[in-house]
């Protein structure tokens, strides 16, 4: 990248050399040559304001034929500008004539301003010379041009930074950016001034017409020393990528009961932002809310919620996202299914315990749906091998909220080779009566006892008959020990049992 250049020039006026020439009637000189700007840059126009004076002691007017500015010394003649037919100067009068020149290279310039005239009194030719030394040095405020990644057809941005490293303030600062094969949507920034060692930033925006290389050129225009306008440029080459479209939709059903919705994730895998993103869903038996996103940046994902109203428990839907990518309108789609999940009762945590000649079945009526289940009733089903028993032939659970449970206990007697107890659960969901049946295995649930051997011998029977006696004795012994320990800790002297 080219470095910014600055300009410095020094003017050394060797002196006014009034020259009296042949013909005694005219006494004239070049009294002054004022150079502007005093510190020119290469290629910059320099004005040499030349003042020619015909002194008061002259006896005749001085006719000015030509005034020229030339390179002094060297082989050949290098003349930068010549003006002609300027009229006459009377004695005691002056004539100011501007000459302009520009110098393509930097360095010291040894110049001469030459006046070609004629003595109107005696007709003799008159030639006046004035030496000028000029130092041209390339020096501008520094410019840096930076550009973000760009994509064909997509507006991108950049900025120009101007740092004033000159030894004086610059004014009327203007930065303009133009490019080849790009459309500039923001190209110009103006500042009133930049102080010595100060800086400014000029943002710009552009849209490449196509993929590939494009050049951007920033031009800095400014004024220095009050009235000298300078210009300098900086060019950079950018590489614009081809536009890539890649947008995907991912859906998730959310909510509970009839309050259902679709959560839609819009993933922008394109290499440019997408704008005016309208997300919607269409279904024959459901209606959905629409959501508008202003934009989704490249390589990012945004989520929206589409609230749904279902006419049936299940709805197949087509989800779409219409969006603008560059100058084109595109669409992404996906298919999904949303369901309304009503209250549903399941029996969980079942436990079967034998109590004498009956079975106690305990557990929880759990609502695995997303709406309340009302009037929940758990009953033992009467079959050839199973009979409901007291004290709980059935159990009225009542209402079970969604994602909650209520415990229950029912009793049954079994005959023959029964291996399970059938339970029936009835309940209301959205004013609709539902019935479910569960078979509870007797020998597979926690706490379940083995079915006793009805034809067992006397020994087995004696052991079974003595078991309650052993249990009662053990419990009595534990009670006595507990009382003794309690009395001992309290420090009682008399212990009575």
Automatic annotation (TrEMBL):
Segments crossing the lipid bilayer: 466-485
Keywords: Membrane, Transmembrane, Transmembrane helix
Keyword Membrane: yes
UniProt keyword annotation of Zinc present: no
Domain of life: Archaea
A GO MF label: protein-glutamine gamma-glutamyltransferase activity
PANTHER family associated with the record: CONSERVED WITHIN P. AEROPHILUM (PTHR35902:SF6), S-LAYER DOMAIN-LIKE PROTEIN-RELATED (PTHR35902)
Name of the molecule in the record: CARDB domain-containing protein
